[in-house]
TrEMBL record:
Top-level division of the source organism's lineage: Eukaryota
Low complexity bias spans: 242-268
SMART domains given in the database record: VWA
Ranges where the VWFA domain occurs: 54-229, 283-456
Source organism: Acanthosepion pharaonis (Pharaoh cuttlefish)
Listed name of the protein: VWFA domain-containing protein
Gene3D superfamilies named among the record's database cross-references: von Willebrand factor, type A domain
Taxonomic lineage of the native organism: Eukaryota, Metazoa, Spiralia, Lophotrochozoa, Mollusca
Length: 466
């Protein structure tokens, strides 16, 4: 009898805080340092921690922050800094805190410290200052960083600013304007929002791209994003700032995708013949967003899942099944006399939010196969992601899928007319084309489900790809 563990993790737009996560920050850092993490569709990020870069932290110290939480945030920054090779020719660090004023006495610039020990000690001297925290003048802190940090940055080295805040700034238009000025100096801005009071739209206005926005629901949950944040920062650092030479010698990145003719042969072969799974332990997690897929798409996904879990070859008593879904919008409509002004109407519609696919993949990676959710340490981990419609943030989705694969999760993609480029689908899937199942209509979903079962049962855990 199939043992089904329904892990309904719900809307994951804000990362969940796993309070009993036994992994320390240092352990997560070692995982990042020791693994070969590939940028989606690009080369391996080799020794990203030694890429020259100037990285500045702009840290919220306003009164809304609980003192112990501020300390946790600073320890997170210290642990993050340990990823990198620190030195005058390598990565340099600057930091400043702010509230109703910019707290300059504990701030330090890129040239203040020459090695990792000195940087960590300087970060340790930054203390929580509630007396300066009556307001949140993020704009002033960004201005300070632009004038005092990045005006002294190295000319041909990548520049990164990381803004850590727990709420909305007191002057969002000015904050955006100052962030735009900083970005105009070729500074890549990453925005991290902590808690339920953050203004996500403002974080997107501050950040250089949607992939540079991180949301966590508590300071304790910062440890859960350290791999993703390290990846984004390393990617920024690996993109060298443009030089001012006028000689057009840029065609060094010649595409090398021509010798990939072997993949075309796999599309003409019939699906592998189903074989008994020989009692192997398999943990499945099916990932989909009903709000994105609509009623018919959700029904197709459920039909697919039912076909898989009912397959005779998987009905061996050693298969567990979970689902990770985003909720449908549950906000009801309203009558003509409900609201009397435009702001109230707009606020109502703001609640109609859908879940981004990348956040569901994050939940798959962080929670889907954890022991407290029924995951087994020696079981084969299989994630099946349903896509219908174009991804809003493909780079973030690709990043999360790659991080999931580094944790041993085998990723399959069910493409339901998703309108995404083939390269995007291949970067999400573990085995590229062999792990992409296409269904152009409802009638093909059952056949694709059977193909998945055949593939799973033919490829034993640890075996070669089909």
């Amino acid at each position: 009898m199939l043992f089904a563990t329904l892990a309904l993790l719900g809307n994951a737009a804000i990362l969940n805080d796993i309070a009993d996560d036994s992994r320390s920050l240092d352990a997560l850092i070692e995982e990042l340092k020791n693994r070969e993490i590939r940028r989606p569709g690009e080369e391996i990020v080799e020794e990203c921690q030694s890429k020259p870069a100037d990285i500045a932290f702009i840290i919220d110290d306003s009164r809304s922050i609980y003192g112990p939480d501020f300390i946790v945030g600073m320890k997170f920054i210290q642990s993050f800094v340990r990823i990198f090779q620190i030195g005058p020719q390598d990565v340099r660090i600057a930091a400043v805190t702010f509230g109703q004023v910019v707290i300059t006495y504990s701030a330090f610039g890129f040239e203040a410290n020459n090695n990792k020990r000195e940087v960590l000690e300087a970060l340790g001297r930054i203390k929580f200052e509630p007396d300066y925290g009556g307001k949140t003048f993020t704009d002033k802190a960004i201005t300070y960083a632009r004038r005092n940090f990045f005006n002294h940055a190295r000319p041909n080295v990548k520049k990164v600013a990381i803004v850590l805040t727990d709420g909305r700034s007191d002057n969002p238009p000015k904050t955006k304007a100052e962030a735009d000025l900083l970005k105009s100096q070729d500074v890549d801005i990453i925005a991290i929002g902590v808690g339920s009071s953050v203004d996500e739209s403002e974080l997107h206005a501050i950040a250089s791209s949607p992939d540079n926005v991180f949301l966590v629901n508590s300071y304790g949950a910062l440890k859960d994003i350290i791999l993703s944040l390290g990846f984004i920062t390393c990617r920024a650092a690996s993109t060298a700032a443009p030089t001012t030479t006028t000689t057009p010698t840029t065609p060094t990145t010649t595409p090398t995708t021509t010798p990939t003719t072997t993949t075309t042969t796999t599309t003409t072969t019939p699906p592998p013949k189903a074989e008994p799974c020989d009692g192997q332990e398999i943990d499945f997690n099916f990932v989909f967003d009903p709000a994105q897929m609509g009623t018919s798409g959700t029904e197709d996904a459920i039909r697919f899942i039912k076909t898989v879990v009912s397959a005779e070859d998987l009905n061996n008593g050693k298969v567990r099944v979970g689902t990770i879904t985003g909720p449908c919008p549950d906000t009801k409509g309203f009558h003509l006399n409900r609201y009397q002004n435009l702001p109230d109407i707009l606020t109502h519609f703001d609640s109609y939010r859908t879940t981004e696919i990348y956040s569901l993949i994050t939940d798959l990676r962080m929670e889907g196969f954890e022991p407290e959710n029924g995951g087994r340490p020696n079981a084969r981990k299989v994630g099946v992601l349903f896509l219908r419609g174009k991804l809003s943030y493909p780079e973030r989705a690709k990043l999360e899928a790659k991080l999931a694969q580094t944790k041993g999760i085998e990723m399959f993609i069910v493409d339901m007319g998703s309108l995404n480029h083939e390269s995007v689908l291949e970067s999400l899937a573990s085995g590229k084309s062999s792990h992409i199942l296409r269904a152009s209509d409802s009638g093909e979903m059952i056949e694709m489900a059977r193909t998945l079962v055949a593939h799973i049962c033919k490829k034993k855990a640890g075996g070669s790809d089909c």
